[in-house]
Amino acid sequence: MNLCGHAVGIDHPLFLIAGPCVIESEKLILETAATLKEMTGRLGIPFIFKASFDKANRSSAGSFRGPGLEEGLRILERVKLDLGLPVLTDVHED
Fold it and tell me: 25: domain range?
């Protein structure tokens, strides 16, 4: 099976899907993605960046949920284009 350009499955090496739980700011996301890219590149680990634009499953209704769909996808697009990383996100129903 192929996921974001990486062969995955029991007969393939480990790869990492990582990133912050929710997008807090563009600056933090780009810094985190760049650091993870450098670390995984140095270690030879295939890497896919993941962060959520809306975390609807918070324990408190007043908790920060993220920047929302439009802004969140714009930030994730910057990770993809500026850093050359494949990206994943999750979608929640209200």
Answer: 2-7+14-57+64-88
CA distance 75 to 52: 11
How far, in Å, CA of 23 to CA of 43, rounded?
Answer: 25
DSSP 12: S
For residue 94, what pLDDT band results from cuts at 50, 70 and 90?
Answer: low
Supply 28's token pair. Answer: 């933090």
CB atoms near residue 63 (< 10 Å): 9
- Quick one: pLDDT at residue 57? 66
Please state the φ and ψ torsions of residue 20, each to the nearest 5 degrees. Answer: -70, 155
User: Does residue 77 fall inside a structural domain?
Assistant: yes
Judge whether 94 lies within some domain: no
Q: What is the mean pLDDT of the chain?
A: 88
pLDDT of residue 13: 82
Residue 93 located in a structural domain:
no
Among 94, 89, 76, residue whose Cα is nearest residue 33: 76
